[in-house]
Amino acid sequence: MILALIISLFWILVNTYIGVYSERKVSAFMQDRLGPMVVGKFGYLQIIADLLKLFQKEDIVPTLADKRLFKLAPWIIFISIFVGFSVIPFSSDTIGSNTETGVFFLLTIISIDIFGILMAGWASNNKYSLFGAMRSVAQLVSYEIPMGISVLTVVVLCQSLNLQQISFQQSIFSETENYLFSIKALGISTTEIGGFLTWNIFRIPILMPVFIIFFIAGLAECNRAPFDMPEAESELIGGFHTEYSGMRFGIMFLSEYGIMLLISLLAAILFFGSWNSPLPNIGNIKLAEWTTGIPGSNSAIFFGLFWLAIKAYFGVFLQMWVRWTFPRLRIDQLMYLSWKVLLPFSILLFLLACLYRFLMF
Description:
single chain; mainly alpha; 15 helices
């Protein structure tokens, strides 16, 4: 458990560097420019320079702000996201809290950041900050519903709220052949083959549209374009964090990239095999077993972290790709998409998943 917490904290800190640098390079590539190139080779020290500048900035608290709430808000946002990492399984043997209600706990704890956002906007005593906070709360509450239903769809099919058990169900080390989709008709067990064939999104075809809903709702949960209405720099100056400077602003920046990683990790666990290898066993060549590691071995920790990180950062890349591809939605379009498109489809898919589970078992 201590190892998992150390990994979580270290990963969140390093992820900010990786995220900011990648964001600049990805956006530069998509806009046919170079991005940071001067400070360090390929500009890799530019983020360090920005961080040093951020440390030196004056920590300003507005005179008429509610100082206690103003100072507390960034920490509520960060802690709610950091605690969410406590139930993430990093490998077959490395997990913070192997609680049986891990999915429920994760969705509950990350929703607390809504209070921090509202607190930041209200305590700033700034109308622009308050507008940004209210729009953020409306957005997050709206999109948490289809996201929660999409996660619940996976839970119904896997029959577990434990993220580690969901991970093992997609593994060659699963104790039972409890897959809803298999190629048993050919006399082949998907558990023995392993690799991507045991991932939820491939063994349960109905989860493909469920993942699309989860991904769209995840963008809104992370306040990422085209759902970055809470910030909307061209309209509301800086949204709910307009009045923040120095390291208080830095903590909010850290939290934004932290929740991007957390949502991507959750997507990898629920849909893309978690810490399991994508390489299947081919005859006597046990690629899935060799590149996943036997539970209890040192190789299991290494391969688990490696594959989970690869899958998670692919999800982060998709979020960046979407940001530099689609324009920002209007607030009415944003609400229409949530309540009249994603919500009905997520409910329909949930009911189909329940029927699918009933008929298959």
